[in-house]
Design a protein that fits this description.
Elements lengths: L6 H8 L1 H18 L7 H21 L1 H7 L5 H17 L7 H24 L1 H7 L14 H19 L4 H19 L5 H27 L1
Helix pairs in contact: 3-5, 5-6, 6-8, 6-9, 6-10, 8-9, 9-10
């Protein structure tokens, strides 16, 4: 395998059998939990599942459509960000129409978008040969500022949540994650092959620490 291949591809290629088994186990577990889910959550899950399948088919198979339609904006990365954020909101059974929930969801979309764009830029060399649906696959370095913009806007939302909307817990998590995203996308010393893992950790660690601290304080 090419030494420039991102670590996640190497990991998947070397453990294909294990990943298939885990996928089957996850799907089986999900089916067993269906009778225990609130009836209202199932339609939302079906729509989200359909959107995910649509994303996979468009960006995996319709390469001509990608070149003509999905080149001006980071369509692939934005679609992933929206699906992730919607999945979180659906899983906690929140109302999309609530202004506060919408604001949190918008912040999550921005953070996920920044994450995907950071990874896209880091893996541009690899994607230029294998995945032209990635935004930076044609090495559009002139648009690199687009990576910082989502995190900066999310940072502003976090300050609004903390200062004006009385949501210090979620606002603090968004604030910390935004700062981490900005630091990672600005640091030129991070090897490209490690960027994906570090960028994902920036999304995972702040919420986990916040939940742990909240659990300790509640007790």
């Amino acid at each position: 395998m090419n030494p420039e291949t991102p670590l996640r591809y190497q990991f998947a290629a070397e453990r294909r059998g294990l990943l298939i088994v885990l996928t089957i186990a996850a799907c089986t577990g999900a089916l067993f939990t269906l009778p225990f889910q609130p009836p209202g959550i199932l339609p939302a899950c079906l729509w989200l599942g359909a959107a995910t399948v649509f994303y996979y088919c468009v960006f995996r198979f319709f390469r001509r459509v990608q070149r003509t339609v999905f080149t001006c904006i980071p369509s692939k990365e934005l679609f992933i960000a929206i699906c992730f954020a919607a999945g979180i909101i659906v899983s906690i059974q929140s109302e999309f129409t609530s202004p506060l929930v919408f604001l949190h969801g918008f912040a999550m979309v921005l953070l996920f978008l920044g994450n995907c764009l950071t990874i896209s830029r880091a893996e541009a060399e690899f994607d230029s040969q294998r995945d032209n649906s990635s935004f930076f696959s044609d090495k559009r370095e002139g648009r690199a500022l687009l990576i910082q913009a989502p995190a900066v806007i999310a940072l502003g939302i976090s300050l609004l949540l903390i200062g004006a909307l009385n949501s210090p817990f979620s606002g603090g998590v968004i604030f910390t994650t935004s700062i981490a995203n900005l630091l990672i996308c600005q640091c030129i010393r991070i090897p490209a092959r490690l960027t994906h893992a570090l960028s994902d950790l920036a999304l995972l660690i702040p919420p986990l620490i916040a939940l742990l601290l909240r659990g300790i304080l509640v007790r």
